[in-house]
Specification:
Elements (H helix, E strand, L loop, with lengths): L17 E4 L5 E5 L8 H6 L4 H7 L4 H4 L5 E5 L35 H29 L2 E9 L19 E4 L9 H12 L2 E2 L2 E2 L2 E3 L8 H9 L4 E9 L12 H23 L3
Helix pairs in contact: 5-7
Length: about 270
């Protein structure tokens, strides 16, 4: 029986990097910051509690994309290796790289850093191979690079971030040829904005809280400049309590259904690109 998002899944072993689901169609979903697991050597050296790490990870993004036939779910914590950073900054070594957090009790040894960066190398080799296969079959593809972000950083009882700076869904497009992919991106924004979640329309805006400058979208647009449209989607953590990690199950179900509903809409928009 399929699991519900009652808590962030923490059962991945230290040898499990990611899970790839491959089906038909040109729409791909990724949840590359969903992971919470760490290798034993990195966990032993970590200066952070599980709760502190979870607060900066993207729990439940795997659940949001679960109905997509093509999807990648990463099990490694971004505090072991951040797959959405360039290789040179994929292991957080300074607090400035990690929201001011001191990630390690002491500087990680070179061998440990290289072991983490090897995961980064393998991820991008796998991603390229998967997308090349989808390109061969469908000609073009769309990657929905799904993330989430905190909006109550001042504390659980403090006021949330101002809504003018924190849309419910932030669409990041800075790394793409926006004019080339306007038909796909505008269709996505319209579809999301027309959705009704909890009896109200969603606040969907482009390049407000984030601009889509992550390594994954950059990599895709570099290697598939004519055929790959990678869109960073940041869901504000209104679907959970970002301080306790407790999910709002009904909100997550609604977001999952919403993402699933995008597949035929985006497939049609992609076909119009030809």
């Amino acid at each position: 029986m399929e699991s519900e998002p009652t808590e962030q899944v923490r059962s991945a072993t230290e040898t499990a990097w990611w899970t790839v689901h491959r089906g038909d169609g040109p729409i791909v979903g990724t949840a590359i910051h969903n992971g919470h697991a760490m290798r034993s050597d990195t966990r032993a050296l970590s200066a952070l509690t599980d709760e502190a790490r979870l607060r900066e990870e993207d729990p439940f993004t795997e659940f949001i994309i679960r109905d997509l036939a093509n999807r990648i779910v990463v099990h490694r914590s971004r505090f072991e290796v951040d797959l959405n950073r360039a290789r040179t900054g994929a292991v957080y070594l300074q607090p400035a790289q990690a929201w001011g957090l001191s990630v390690w009790r002491e500087h990680p040894p070179a061998a440990m850093i290289e072991a983490s960066l090897a995961v980064h190398d393998e991820y991008y080799a796998m991603l390229h191979s998967m997308l090349a296969a989808i390109e061969r079959r469908h000609g073009r593809f769309v990657v929905l690079d799904v993330h989430s972000y905190n909006h109550r950083r001042q504390g659980p009882e403090a006021a949330p971030a101002a809504t003018d700076e924190a849309p419910e869904i932030n669409i990041g497009t800075s790394s793409m040829d926006r004019l080339k992919w306007a038909g796909v991106v505008d269709t996505l924004i319209s579809a999301l904005g027309a959705a009704d979640i909890g009896g109200r329309p969603l606040d969907v805006r482009e390049n407000i809280a984030f601009q889509g400058r992550g390594e994954q979208t950059r990599f895709i647009h570099e290697h598939f400049p004519e055929t790959g449209c990678a869109i960073a989607i940041e869901f504000k953590k209104t679907f959970m309590d970002e301080w306790t990690g407790k999910p709002d199950i009904e909100a997550l179900r609604a977001l999952r259904a919403l993402v699933s509903s995008l597949v035929p809409v985006l497939t049609e928009a992609l076909a119009r690109q030809r």
